[in-house]
């Protein structure tokens, strides 16, 4: 799992607008994680400054392993275990680790986050969960499982929350101004349905520091990290905006009004001069928040 995601920009089955096929999302997950790598590098460096001695790092909901490998690079003495419930994602993670030369201290574990983290060889010194917890029905129970997986004095770094992505100005010259805010509102409705339909779903106030405290951890810090690719963007950034916006149009289409859907179609038409493919004002701006807690010794 990765996602969505965080605002989790994740692909879905065309016939199912609440449940995701993460294996089908591999190209998009890798594209996003690689583009956002400066954010993850900064966050990992911040964590390293807080605890340089780290024997075992667990990436809970690792997806295709982009961040897992980045953590291995940031903590060169640590062993990294990528945990996910989707085997094709773990296969990609293993291949990436081998390709980047960290495979000798990298392993994978297939497990559902809601059922604990499976059979870790020994407790984790650092457990990283990047926008994966909100895909678990009972988030408090999953956090309790994370806490059990930590060694005394171990650190949990939970990336949840932040700000939705923005790709272009409020007024783009076609359609009604404020398109992205309306798309966000439809996304929020979908996200609520997705959460409600998860197995064992429990509604929680998304006060992550309080939830960490409730499972016996001591909240120590919260920090938000920015992704800022101003216009004019690189070809890689523009390609990601196309991918992300296409995904949003496709899976949110049932909830969008006809005018906004028509505007999105124009924005994604490579032959339209007003589209993302040609606009000089395209940018990428978002923020992700990391909450850190420590297990008492």
From TrEMBL:
Matches recorded under Gene3D superfamilies: Vaccinia Virus protein VP39
GO biological process, one term: methylation
Domain Methyltransferase: 57-154
Keyword Transferase appears in the UniProt entry: yes
A GO molecular-function descriptor: methyltransferase activity
Source organism, top-level taxon: Bacteria
Protein keywords: Methyltransferase, Transferase
The protein's name in its UniProt record: Class I SAM-dependent methyltransferase
Lineage of origin: Bacteria, Bacillati, Actinomycetota, Actinomycetes, Kitasatosporales
